[in-house]
């Protein structure tokens, strides 16, 4: 078996495999590096966002998942340390940290409240679909929501929601992807239901677990490693047990 991949230079190459583990996560439209971007360009992009976020204007984060909450906390701390008069607004189409225990949701809300942040749920940003920093220092723009509400005086907008799994590279691998979700549909062994040579973990896998976190993924990785070893030795596979 083989899979086609693209290098950062844009070249396409075929990689043969005996077993394939998909662990490419999901797509987030954050301030992330592009393939081939230099370290200097990457640092400049982050510096521009930091300057805008701490310069006195408001900051809007789109999304209410674990990544959005982590980003929100970091930005709140940076704004406080810089003495910024701006406010942070989190806009989520659902309750924040959906799927997480209530005590964790309550703690996240407590921290955001402590920084004076605003949380808007059951709504989403419709005016921007990519990270945006005000074009000039001190300038601001307006973020529009699906409900019709507008948030003026914004210096930086950062979408931090999942746009889907990073599985395009598996589109030509027969039986690998679930048609609806485009994730790798796996069985109780975390083995692809349509291709026994493919395993998957994390955000690109169609796994029913209470939430996605490092401890969960660590347990998934251990299951996959053990099952590939068992497959090579013609031993029975081990059913996955959800991590803590």
TrEMBL record:
> Per the UniProt entry, what species is this protein from, by scientific name?
Octactis speculum
Q: Does the keyword Isomerase apply?
A: no
Protein name from the UniProt record: FAD/NAD(P)-binding domain-containing protein
What's this protein's family per the entry?
A: Belongs to the FAD-dependent oxidoreductase family.
**Superkingdom of this protein's organism:** Eukaryota
* Stretches of the chain forming a coiled coil according to its record: none
Do the record's keywords include Transferase? no
Which ranges carry the FAD/NAD(P)-binding domain?
A: 6-209
| PANTHER family, sorted | APOPTOSIS-INDUCING FACTOR 1, FERROPTOSIS SUPPRESSOR PROTEIN 1
Q: Which is an annotated GO molecular function term of this record?
A: flavin adenine dinucleotide binding
Annotated GO CC locations: cytoplasm
Alphabetically list the UniProt keywords.
Answer: FAD, Flavoprotein, Oxidoreductase
